[in-house]
């Protein structure tokens, strides 16, 4: 949709559709999406709830409801909404990816790993699922799996700055400062704003890039 004029025309069409057919779940969903994008979350929430009540397979409405609950800080409702979404559509990768993010926030890495692996199985191109899966392994203290997952993610998205930062951090935890510096430098070159404390720790290695080889210390490895 181009510009505010197009947006207003779209809203007007949905409103007109609802006036002629008050039970149209699709119009309620579409209008809810537009209001959500405008930051009118409570109005959007009401429309998504009505769309779910009036429609049958409104799994995307559940996911958007989950987003609103996340903005409101209610992780339990985010989990519930995305669980309902994947019950309706078991092959909906985004729903599983969202669940993984929620479990990560709840510090439930095992649950996060299970659903994130499912999301990646359904759609290997969801970069955030790879990122959160690596972080779930990190949360468990499994540095080898975190490293492996970050490396796979960067094969798919080599310019993902957060991925390079996260990989640098895993390498740092494993004691491989050369590789940590290499990937942190790439993250910075791609525009990532690294944590100031991590930057301070890594500064001597970043400043000595000309001395770095591919040294083999123990190996090591983005919203949330």
TrEMBL record:
Keyword terms of this UniProt record: TPR repeat
A Pfam cross-reference name: TPR_8
Transmembrane stretches, start-end: none
Residue ranges of TPR repeats: 25-58, 59-92, 93-126, 127-160
Residues in coiled coil: none
InterPro entries in the cross-refs: OGT, Sel1-like, TPR-like_helical_dom_sf, TPR_rpt
Gene Ontology BP annotations: protein O-linked glycosylation
PANTHER family for this protein: UDP-N-ACETYLGLUCOSAMINE--PEPTIDE N-ACETYLGLUCOSAMINYLTRANSFERASE 110 KDA SUBUNIT
Name the record gives this protein: Tetratricopeptide repeat-containing protein
Organism: Desulfofundulus australicus DSM 11792
